[in-house]
Design brief:
There is one protein chain. The chain has two domains: 43 residues, no CATH class; 58 residues, HU Protein, Chain A (Irregular), CATH 4.10.520. The protein is 37% helix and 31% strand. The chain contains three helices and five strands.
């Protein structure tokens, strides 16, 4: 069993805490994720107060090496990546994690 939180887990958690039909919760969660994805693919940052910020950053192209063929240089192209920066409240909650239990 995985410790990962899935979209289904989120839907079920919201469904258990509300009177909304599961179908509506699923649609709302998907629409939220679609809106976040659309903003990021447009190069916009996504700021969710008290949670954090998803920032689009551009990584420069660089030369890399294949560990299986170290004599061969490989050009890693310029690409967009997403960086997440936790908000103040999330950072405070993270400080309370028992790291040894992870």
């Amino acid at each position: 069993m995985s410790n990962n939180l899935t979209k289904r887990d989120i839907v079920l958690d919201i469904y258990d805490k509300t009177d909304f039909p599961q179908k509506d919760v699923r649609a709302t969660v998907q629409l939220t994720l679609d809106a976040i994805s659309a903003a990021l693919t447009e190069g916009r940052n996504v700021e969710l107060r008290n949670f954090g910020v998803f920032e689009v950053q551009v990584r420069k192209s660089r030369i890399g090496r294949n560990p299986n063929k170290p004599e061969t240089d490989v050009l890693i192209p310029t690409r967009a990546v997403i960086k997440f920066k936790a908000g103040k409240e999330l950072k405070a909650q993270l400080k309370q994690i028992d790291i040894d239990s992870l």
